[in-house]
Amino acid sequence: MLKMKAKTLVCSGILLFACALPAARAQLAGIQPLGSTVEENNDLLHGWSVRKALVNEPVYNDNNDKVGSIYDLIIAPDRKATYAVLSVGGFLGMGIHYVAIPVDHFEIRNGNLFLAGATKDALKRVPEFEYNKLEKATKPSKVSSQ
């Protein structure tokens, strides 16, 4: 009788645990479509991440000298990437100079980003890029699908 109660208790615990799992899985991105269709979600999973593909990637000049790294991308209201913000120079996060360069100035060669004619010194002479102080106020309040 005691063995039967123990088995019932164990089985009940397993069932409660198993019933709780789907609810936990529903919170994982990519499993439950949150505001998108299954097809859109599949496209998302096969897409690429700007953060992983571009941010902190080195930028080289024609002499294969590293002249900076991608720090950020600026997206225009028409949803197109218009400028890349480069971090130039600096050591351990000190003295970094940020410059905005139009994205059409970059080339991709053998999987690397190139900025023709650029040098660290020339980029440091470019006026420093500063983010809009009213950035939060100017963000689009609603993303519409087109």
Describe the structure.
This is PRC-barrel domain-containing protein. Residues 1-26 form the signal peptide. It comes from Paraburkholderia phenazinium. Residues 54-111 form the PRC-barrel domain. This protein is of the alpha+beta class and 146 residues long. The protein is 32% helix and 24% strand. It has helices spanning 2-25, 38-46, 50-53, 120-125, 135-138, and strands at residues 58-60, 66-75, 81-88, 97-102, 106-109, 112-115. A six-stranded mixed β-sheet has the order 4-3-2-1-6-5. The radius of gyration is 25 Å and the shape is globular.
Could you outline the blueprint of secondary structure elements for this entry?
Elements: H1 2-25, H2 38-46, H3 50-53, E1 58-60, E2 66-75, E3 81-88, E4 97-102, E5 106-109, E6 112-115, H4 120-125, H5 135-138
Parallel strand pairs: 1-6
Antiparallel strand pairs: 1-2, 2-3, 3-4, 5-6
